[in-house]
Amino acid sequence: MDGFLLQLFIFLAAAGVAVPIAKKLGLGSVLGYLVAGVAIGPFGLSLVNNIESIMHFTEFGVVMMLFLVGLELRPSLLWKMRVPILGVGGTQVVLTTAIICLVGLYFLPWQQALAVGLTLSLSSTAIVLQTLKERGQMDTSAGRSIFSVLLFQDLAVIPMLAGIPLLATLSMSGDAHTSAALFDINSLPAYQQALITVAAIGLVLVVGKYASGPMFRSIAAAKVREVFVASALGLVIGTSVLMLLVGLSPALGAFLAGVTLSDSEFRHQLESDIDPIKGLLLGIFFISSGALLNFALIGEKFAVIVSMALGLMTVKWLILVLIGRVFKIHKDDRPLFAVSIAQGGEFAFVLFQMARSNGVLPADVIEPILSAVAISMFLTPIVFVLYDKWESKKPTESPEQEPDFVDKKGHRVILAGFGRSGTDVGRFLQSAGITPVILDHDAHNVSILRKFGFEVYFGDATRLDLLESAGAHDAELLIVTTGDPESSLHLIEIAHKHFPHLKIVASAQNRRTMYEMMDLGVTNVFRETFGGALEVGKAALKELGMEPYRAHRLALIFQKKDREIAFEMYKLRGEENSYISSFHEHHANLEKIMELDIADDRGEIDKAWTSKSPES
Amino acid sequence: MKKVLIQFAHPARSKSSINNAMRRAVEGLDNVTVNDLYAMYPEFLIDIEREQALCEQHDIIVFQHPFYWYSTPAIMKEWQDLVLQHGWAFGSKGNALRDKLYLQAFTAGGDADTFQEHGKNFFTIREFMAPLIATVSLCKMQWLPPFVVTGVHRGLPQDKVQYYAEQYRKVILALRDKHVDLNAASQAESINANIDSVLLEVV
To answer: pTM surpassing 0.80?
Structure first.
């Protein structure tokens, strides 16, 4: 136990030192983790042992990452991406495998060359997705092309895991038999295996689609946060176990589970609960990758390994450049597309390990190639930095466009609170063509509103991580309609602190909350009952026989003056006496103004509509 | 240097590249104030005092707007109805606008040749201006023939848009700097029809 805690401490401390430094230098967190790994690894301070098992455990971070990726991909979007995934991704894997295999044929028998080719065609999903996310490029067109390729690769791992053992030419060394936890599916006849596999995938889809909703709803109703986290985690782990059981990739299972949940109201809540755990696991995974770099071997065969790493990246880069042209990826996106996935991937560690134990590849082939892969992964964050340098030097072609002020697509708005005032705000915005991300923390309310077709997500908007996963970093505007003074104010404070770019429009429950919001610097504050009261007043005047247009005008004047008065009264709050006297004074003034508008001959406005007007 | 007030009235500004270009050409010039009526009063609740004060502070009042139904957008009519009060703008004691220059700058869908007796629109642009000419005269202001852009229904090519915007800027600057031959200008059908004969020196 002590040893475990100490190890954990060393990992975390190394990350805590290295990552902020790497970020400060603009290198991204992944490189920071890798360097931390080198520092504490056997060729650095030699502080940790048992790295392989740690790495094996933290590989689960990749599974979680794919779950999160799935959460962000709706089935419809996935279907839309079928061409890039199959076309671009498929071409990349096939072409890269073929070319590396051809090169390999000079040195190795064809079976070994093919195994190496397949393994090296894969890129590092973990590093690249993490880096793209950090750089906010996931949603760009280049980001989507990159993601398509990575997704195809992750899926291609599954047949590779099954196929590579068939290439065995060497006598078996070690234990190739992977035993499953509960029962061994391989002992069953083939048709049963296939049936079970299909059933397992079906189970993931059905549970994700139909059972998860009621399940999470009842858990959310308990309002114990860690139970929700636990069940989210349980869902991911359970899916992985099921996939392992039937011999499929846990990453694929988690991805599918994510996709089926992407339409669920719990999407953002799940995302923010799983995300920190994923981050932690991946961080430790990267650290162990760094620690595993075999510097003794690299030192020995420095020239060979480094040229293999550079050769690998060059070949993959050239193929990606070609694919970018053939598949008509936009000219501006091609450079990033090509440089970002030119490295080897973490699956190389898994596949090579398996190839060795199945007698496909000898250790003396694997070791140097694995080092080259690790170096190429190590170089990736650096390549991103170089790309940025190059990109910023490139002259921008199109002149600055005049900013549009309306009809801009892709407005990003977060609407926090979908209660009595939030619902109407949301309906109004949607009718104007703006679809906000709506958050509400009442699970019952959320499930009802979703039945009416609103895209509402369950979650407490005052939680920083939930705001983040709702897209607060990219959003333009936050609308606060939580219906509760305390959480409204808390939310505004959080937004100011962490997302200072967010514009805020708030609805206040009463005058006092309105002033407190103004204290926080929000000027777009409206009392939530005011609009309704005005409508009632207008109807009353009309019922009393006032001309409808006149009643409407009076309401407009009252609204405008009330707002002006609110700002003045705000300055006087706290001084009770002057506040009250000022309130009376303003009210008297307002009455006077309204009288002017009502009175037939004296009214300023009426001058325009009296006999003194020309031609009246 | 005179002071120019540009009363901008377009209910769908984002859809008019010509009105935007013209507005950009004059926005930010010294002694030129742009007042966007639809942005200021989206609910048509015109602040009469503010508008009257603005008029008093400027020497030249320009209304820039699209030529809707042979006339102005609705808010401009509302503005006239409310702001041009007896005792302020007209009547024996209404001298607030006396001797100020009045100019309209508008964009019309029809081509120039449709605005004549035998054309599609039956009347000349000047004839369509009749109520405004009388209004301006009742308010003791000096009326100038309008700055006219015709044929925008097809959408103007970008170079035309630039051309008119530049011309508009020239006219506004000339008015501000008193480089306009007011006599010659008042004879013209539009102030920009033969711009060189109107401007005293090229600015």
So the answer is: no
Same domain, A434 and A544: no
C-alpha distances in angstroms, A372 versus A289, A294, A301, A360?
13, 10, 11, 19
Residues 58-87 in A contacting B (C-alpha not used; CB under 8 Å): none
Rounded to a whole number of angstroms, the distance from the CA of A605 to the nearest CA of chain B is 6
Q: Please check the confidence at residue A435 and state whether its pLDDT lies above 80.
A: yes
**Is A557 close to B85, i.e. CB distance below 8 A?**
no
Which of A440, A470, A63, A477 lies closest to A278 in space, CA to CA? A63
Q: Residue A369, Cα to own-chain centre: how many angstroms? A: 33
Among all residues of chain A, which has the CA nearest to that of B139?
Answer: A614
Q: Which range of residues forms the domain containing residue A608?
A: 538-616
Residue B78 lies in a domain: yes
**Phi/psi of residue A26, each to 5°?**
75, 25
Q: What CA–CA distances, in Å, run from A445 to A149, A211, A218, A221, A442?
A: 40, 19, 13, 11, 5
Q: Which pairing describes strands A456-458 and A477-480: parallel, antiparallel, or unpaired?
A: unpaired
Whether the pLDDT of residue B139 is over 60: the answer is: yes
What confidence tier does B183 reach under pLDDT thresholds 50, 70, 90? confident
Which chain A residues touch B81 with a CB distance below 8 Å?
A: 608-609, 613
What DSSP string describes A521-550?
A: T---EEETTHHHHHHHHHHHHHHTT--HHH
Q: Do A376 and A311 share a structural domain?
A: yes
Helix, strand counts (H, E) of chain B: 9, 6
Query: A555, A537 in Cβ contact below 8 A?
Result: yes
ipTM confidence:
0.75
Closest Cβ–Cβ partner in B45, B86, B91 for A556: B45
